[in-house]
């Protein structure tokens, strides 16, 4: 579980599928109201507080993005807390329970995102993808000192998608960054046909 602060009132949490399995949670469970998911959320908020000092009291907007073959990204935005906390203290209420006011948005993202520290690795993987006939497409971003290749595998046969993932994983690392974050905080280097463009201008 990795936690990163995006702004004073917003954090991003990356959960691998191993993180979920360790807690007995399946990917599809994140779409359901079950105690295990609430426990996971409480654990995430405790870790966010201890690591970043992020106080999760008050209303929270929670966005959950499922990423293919990588894990899940949870973006938590803290709203303005109401100044009526005393009215909510009920002596009969179970004080051991952490109660969060959450507005949850769930999205399934099929975008493949891989980060590379060196541009040489981007050149190498692009040439492999191109020569193997796996892809000519993709978008290239620069974000926090890393190069990020993003692919939309919609309509691609699963075997081909797995082959693309295998090559990307050989040279880079699956990243928890979402397309929305990249477009807001990163820099678009090549907006379409990145693999073809890179292979045209660079040789490994």
UniProtKB/TrEMBL annotation:
InterPro entries: MecA_C_sf (IPR038471), Neg-reg_MecA (IPR008681). It holds the Pfam family MecA. Belongs to the MecA family. NCBIfam families: PRK02899.1 (NF002781). This is Adapter protein MecA 2.
């Amino acid at each position: 579980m990795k936690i990163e602060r995006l702004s004073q009132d917003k954090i991003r949490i990356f959960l691998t599928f191993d993180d979920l399995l360790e807690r007995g949670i399946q990917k599809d469970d994140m779409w359901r109201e079950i105690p295990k998911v609430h426990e996971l959320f409480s654990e995430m908020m405790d870790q966010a507080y201890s690591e970043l000092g992020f106080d999760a009291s008050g209303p929270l907007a929670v966005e959950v993005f499922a990423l293919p073959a990588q894990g899940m990204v949870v973006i938590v935005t803290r709203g303005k807390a109401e100044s009526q906390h005393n009215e909510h203290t009920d002596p009969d209420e179970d004080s051991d329970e952490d109660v969060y006011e959450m507005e949850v948005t769930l999205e399934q993202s099929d975008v493949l995102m891989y980060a590379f520290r060196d541009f040489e690795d981007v050149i190498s993987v692009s040439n492999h993808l191109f020569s193997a006939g796996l892809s000519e497409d993709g978008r290239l971003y620069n974000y926090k000192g890393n190069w990020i290749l993003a692919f939309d595998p919609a309509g691609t046969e699963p075997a081909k998608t797995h082959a693309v993932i295998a090559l990307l994983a050989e040279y880079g690392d699956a990243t928890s960054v979402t397309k929305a974050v990249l477009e807001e905080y990163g820099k678009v280097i090549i907006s379409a046909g990145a693999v073809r463009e890179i292979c045209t201008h660079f040789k490994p």
